[in-house]
Structures are given as C-alpha cells and as structure tokens.
Amino acid sequence: MAKKMQNKKDDFDLGESYKDIVENSPDMIHSVDDKGFIVYANKKECKVLGYKRSEIIGKHLKDIYAPELYKEVEKGFKVLKKKGELHVSHGKMLKRNGDVIEVQIDSIAIYDKNHHFIRTRSIVHDVTEMSEISEQLMLKGRALDTVTSGIIITDAEQKDNPIIYSNDAFTEITGYTKEEVLGKNCRFLQGKHTNGDSAKLIGEAIKKGEPIKLQLYNYKKDGTSFWNDLTISPVKNDAGKVTHYVGILVDITDQIETLKQVTGSEARYKDIVENSPDMIHSVDAKGRILFVNRKSIEMLGYTEDELIGMDVFKLYAPELIKDVKKGFEKLKKEGAIYIPHGHVVTKTGEKIEVEIDSVAAYDQDGNFVRTRSILHDITGRRIAERALQDKVEQMEFMGRLNLKRHKKMKAMEKEIDLLQQKIRKLENNNS
Asked: Fewer CB within 10 Å, N- or C-terminus of the chain?
C-alpha cells in the first residue's frame, strides 16, 4: 500500500520552486486521497509527528488524528468535496510517541478535468502553545472573578482606550454586564456630581502613562451613586510603551459615610464602627491606642485589654513603621492621610496587607487630640492584582506571538495561493 501511495505522490510534480515552499513551510502540510490515505507529507509534518516520510506515506488519517478530530474531518469530507474547502478550528493530532498536539486545519479539494474529486491538500497549524496560554488566561480570568474588587482592563492602543475585560465584581458593583461595557470608555460611570477635577486628573495620568489613585463619585447603571476608590495602573510592553491600563474599583461608600458620621458625632462612634467589616482604631497624640472595634480584635488576635494603651506602631510591619510615623506627623498638620498599602502584624506574627485611611480630630482650640483610622484588608485584592498582571503579560505575549505568526503567514500567503493554483492546474492536467 505504501509503495502504491508513493507512486501516486511521484506523479504529483509541483516544480522545484513550489516544492521548496511546501517542504520548508513553518506549518505541516499533507495530501490525502479520496479514501483518507496520506499520499504526501512535508518535512515539517514528518518532524513534528516523529515519522520518516516513508513511514507516514500510506497511513490513514485515523492514525494521526485523535478520534474526535477524525469524526469531525470525516463528516466535513462531504462538505470539502462539494465546496472545495474546509476549516477545522480546533482538534488534536497524534504523534508517533503518543503525545498530543492542538491544531487548526485548512483543507482544499483537488479535482480532475471532469471536476471529480481526487485528493485534499491540507495546511495544519500547530496551536498547542496558544491553546495552553488561552487555558491559563481562562483560569486566571475565573480567579479574578472570585475577588470582591471590580477589575477592568482597557486597551491603550485603541482609540478612546476601550474596556476589553471586566470581572464579575465590576458587574456586582456597577450593575453593568460584561457585554454592556466591552468596547466602551470608563467615563460612562461619571455623572452629574462627579468631580470634574478628579476626572481631569485621570485624563492627565493616562496621557502621561502614569499610575493614579483617587476617590471618585460615580454612578451605577440604576442611577445610584457610590464612592469609588479607584486605582489605575499602566501596563507596558518590553519596549516601555503603555499597551493597557488596569483599573481596580472598590465601593467605599460605607467607609466614607462612617468617617463622616464618626467625625461629626463622638457619641455615636462605637455604634457605627463596632460592626464595620474593616478594622477601625483611635490613637492619641502620643500614638497610644484609645479604641479598637470588634474587627480589629478578631483580625489581630489580641484582646481589647491588650490593645488599649499599646503603642500603635507595634502593630505595623518593621518596613512600614517609618512611613506610618512620618504619616502620623503629617496627619496632625493636614488632618487626613492615605497609605495605599502596607502590612500590620497579628499577635501570632502573621502579616495582613492593608490600606489605611486616617483623619485627625481636634479640640475646640484646634489642637490635635486623636486619630481615627480605617484599615481595609486588601490581601485578596493584591493577590488578584498579581494574577491580573500575569494575565495582562500573557495577553501581551499572545499578542506578540500572533503578530509574529501573522507576519510569517502573510509573507507566505501569496506563495501558498499561487501554489494551490499550480496544484489544481497540474493535477487537473495529470487527470
């Protein structure tokens, strides 16, 4: 059978220039007769699948296609004979050693002068690496959908910086579905009472390719307003060009209201903060803790008696103490500080990553008397940010991979088109 197939192949003379294109193609190329037996395989296909050419000629497609792919191709064979071409977007091909590769297949039909089907000519693209990256992106996407912070990714290389990804938490916070926000600029969250200066700062940061963090008054799909603790970070490629922006949204409306009420009424302080989902404490002018809420006791592992009177700086990780002390002095003068991230240390020595919002309280003479601070646990968000960074980097890699492949395929496209015309003409004449 193999000899018969070899003779059939020898009848098929492409000419040296076209034969060289097929033989040295970066993709696998094979030709199959009307019974499904291989009559030709190029150098790349032999190398990838692990066969000598003499071994693969005469094999049936069942021998190199996984069962699911073979069923799809067998079913598509009728379409191929009638329409002259067939595209299989995804399937698995079998190597000689049993390994599996992911492939895409583009096939054309060859006819004789009476338009009777003779054989196929197929170009097989190995997409194993791209499939693995896609799977990783899907896994990371599912991981990002489990976090409570809203996350979006925008494409800085497209006009108006449109959204290309949003997670489930973004929908939960804003009411907008993924389908509703894809392709839009994030400004649709702004409304009547959004601070124009804040919006302007965002525009300037994006224009400069710089990160920015601020609190913005935004609006949900149903018209409800909310305070958005927004972080925007640029993502750059290897050349240092900004290609994407990552936005992280946190609804801090409850926190803002808590701070307002605490500042306005000391008598209601404990009632408001005791059931807060964040750690809240009050510290005197010397840095001694005056008050902690239940969440602080639960998260830090100390009793209330142990925390009251403690030097607050002992709760922070050593590398953060300098910044906190510096911020403490700034707080006394300016009335408020924000520390985007740092670590507090529990009684057992474990670290919790937090962001800190603090306001100062003064007596009637304007003298500083105490701070009131909210510590928000961002451990989950930071894990998500790192996962998100990996996701964006992989998107960048896939983009470069596709671009490289696109350029290579474009360079060959004209030659392949000419080759296919040559094939049809020669085989039709031979028939």
From this structure: N
145, amino acid identity: D
Count of C-beta atoms within a 10 Å radius of residue 227: 17
Q: What is the pLDDT of residues 341-371, one digit of tens each?
A: 789 999 999 999 888 888 888 887 788 889 8
Find all residues with CB under 8 Å of 164, minimum gap 6, and list them. 153, 154, 155, 182, 244
Tokens of 184: 């839009």
Which two three-digit tokens encode residue 248? 């992280």
Distance CA 257, CA 254 (A): 5
Neighbours of 397 (CB within 10 A): 14
- DSSP codes, 226-240: EEEEEEEEEEE-TTS
- What token pair was written down for 45? 């296909």
What is the separation of C-alpha 356 from the centre of its chain, rounded to a whole number of angstroms? 28
Helix (H) or strand (E) holding 50: none
Q: What is the pTM of this model?
A: 0.41
* Angle subtended by helix axes 379-430 and 128-144, to nearest 10: 150
Q: In the predicted model, is pLDDT for residue 266 greater than 60?
A: no
Give Cα 336 to chain centroid, integer Å.
Answer: 35
* Domains of the chain, earliest start first: 2-126 (3.30.450.20), 133-251 (3.30.450.20), 255-378 (3.30.450.20)
Q: Which pLDDT band holds residue 45 (cuts at 50, 70, 90)?
A: very high
| Spatial contact of 163 and 183, defined as CB atoms under 8 Å apart | yes
Pair of tokens at residue 210: 């710089």
